[in-house]
What we know:
The protein is an alpha+beta fold. The chain is 19% helix and 30% strand. The protein is globular and about 45 Å long.
Amino acid sequence: MTTHQNVILSLLKKQLETSGFNGPHQQNVWIMAAAAVDYLGKLNAPNAYAEIPTHVVRLILRTTDEAGTNDYVDGTDVYVRLDQENQIADFVWEDLWAEGPPIFHGGTIPDALRWVRDLAEPFYIQLRDPFLTPEQWISLNGHDKDFAEPQLKDDQKEDRCMIDDELDLPF
Length: 171
């Protein structure tokens, strides 16, 4: 990981990760994956914005609560301005990404990683909750895997074909 990526990751962790089983939301939130590219003017800056980002960072957030670690994740693109000389990073254009629903909402981990890779190869991946001990991980999740693959129902065949009767038609 480069020095610039470390500075960006430190900002992301400081602002977005929480160890909150004792907090108001009763959950841990951590960055599962992050990729960054130089901004290069991909969006036209609205006149109201004085600060122009240097990087677009695509990230995935994952959570753990009393029911275990969630196998579905959310993600969004954030905009960061990096002062390379002083090695300081800060968010810009927060109103574009901090409010409203995430861009990637409630998807699976493999799909989320593919979505991140659509921007760039991730410079950071953390599938396990960094706030849990190995014993807590097994106790909460019932397994020692980074994420559990979806299980087929007993009466469901592996290769399943849909027939027209199974579709919910819009009319």
